[in-house]
Amino acid sequence: MKKLGLLILLLAAITAGAHYSGARDFSQVSFAWKKLDNGGEWGAFFSDLVTIIKGEKLVSSQISLTANPNQIIYRWKDELGQLHFGQTPPKDVDFEVIKQGDLKLQTQKSMSKDEIDQVLKPNDKKKD
After folding, report:
1. Fewer C-beta within 10 Å: the chain N or C terminus?
2. Is pLDDT at 93 greater than 70 in this prediction?
3. Per-domain residue ranges for the chain?
4. What is the b/e burial string over 80-98, where b = at least 16 CB atoms within 10 angstroms of the residue's CB?
């Protein structure tokens, strides 16, 4: 009974905080709960709730690609079609298993400010 009361109090606090901050995206609370349910920690969950109450968006955690190449990564899509990666398999969702050693990284050099200015510079040549 105490857990139910705590849950109701927590939901009321989230709702009030979201109301006063102008945040109305309660799917973020669902996302925070799923992170907790998929092996997350309570401290991170409460930190996510504070982020939501502030009106900010949650982002999925980054996975270190310098880790053990034999480490397994799980990839899945949520009900909104957003792609997620994690180190623990999600519950009640189809997922793909990826071995970190099998990942191939590609990098692309971005343009410098001078190169961007050169591309965006209007053509000064006059047609005769």
Report:
1. C
2. yes
3. 1-59, 62-105
4. eeeebebeeebeeeebeee
- Model-level pTM greater than 0.70? no
Handedness of CA 21, 57, 12, 50 (dihedral sign): negative
**Side-chain half-sphere CA neighbours of 26 within 13 A:** 9
Q: Is the pLDDT of residue 28 over 80?
A: no
